[in-house]
Amino acid sequence: MIIEMHYHLDERMESIEHLLDQMEKFKIDKIALIAPMVDPFHVEGTAEKLSNFVRFLLTGFWHRLGLIAYESTVTKSGKFTILGKTYHIDQQPDNGIVEKAMKAHPDKFCTWFFINPAREDVIASLSTACQNPGWIGAKCHPFWHRYPVSMLDDAAAYCSEKGLPLLIHLGGKKENGDYQYLPERHPDLEIIYAHAGVPHYQKLWTYAKTKDNVFFDLSSPYLDEPLRVAAMKATGPSKCFYGTDGPFGYPGTDNKYDHGAILGEIYGFSISTNEKEQILGKNFAALAGIK
Fold this sequence. Notes:
By secondary structure, the chain is of the alpha/beta class. The protein has a single domain, classed as TIM Barrel, CATH 3.20.20. The protein has 11 helices and 10 strands. The protein has helices at about 15-25, 45-60, 65-70, 95-105, 120-130, 155-160, 180-185, 200-210, 225-235, 260-265, 275-290, and strands spanning about 5-10, 30-35, 80, 85-90, 110-115, 135-140, 165-170, 190-195, 215, 240. It has an 8-stranded parallel beta sheet, with helices on both faces. A two-stranded antiparallel sheet has the order 3-4. The longest helix is centred in the C-terminal third of the chain and has 16 residues, at about 275-290. The mean pLDDT is about 95.
């Protein structure tokens, strides 16, 4: 079984029909959808080179400088920015978009429930969502939504009680990037740090070795192939999940999203077939209760 556990459904960039075609082409059994949260954008040309340079800073001696560059991609007014262009970030992503797709294709899609504790009563929202089948956990973005990780305390307690995983995209500051706060306070909560723990990478991987409840997805252009391999080796295949962060990055020959790009990298990992199967679906199926 192949499960893609981190994909933003945005038909302005990729239609459901194309998504389903790609699933059939690459034998992807199920995708965990996330509501869209930003205007469509493409990282290419000079922007791609800049992104690669920031990744280089974050994974080396100049990590602190990389954190500054990483944080600078969100403006004071709460917009995503790259090379002077700005893109609107939705402070309350529309979960109804992914719910509609899930109900139309329940055999193909499950869904994350996007929360923002700075804007809503997350317990009330999660309590309502979890009454419906198909919702597998909560997704949050303290980086782009600009709030401290500590504001997720109530949501973490709820998810821990209900046995739901929490998928988090961390920031680069002390408050929005505190990767120790939730694992220490909620040892029974299963936490997935998006994009191999960007922007903390190696420090977070080392920390995760001592925490049974901390996991990582290997999605997004925030990573390249060597960094995916490094994350997998540092944390072990049992802590890693296949995801893409599509439809951002990895354009195919038809200029649409290529769902085979990251899959191909994982197939090329120098690990056993069983370990590849763990990363590609078994780990996440067990965590999210997917049969």
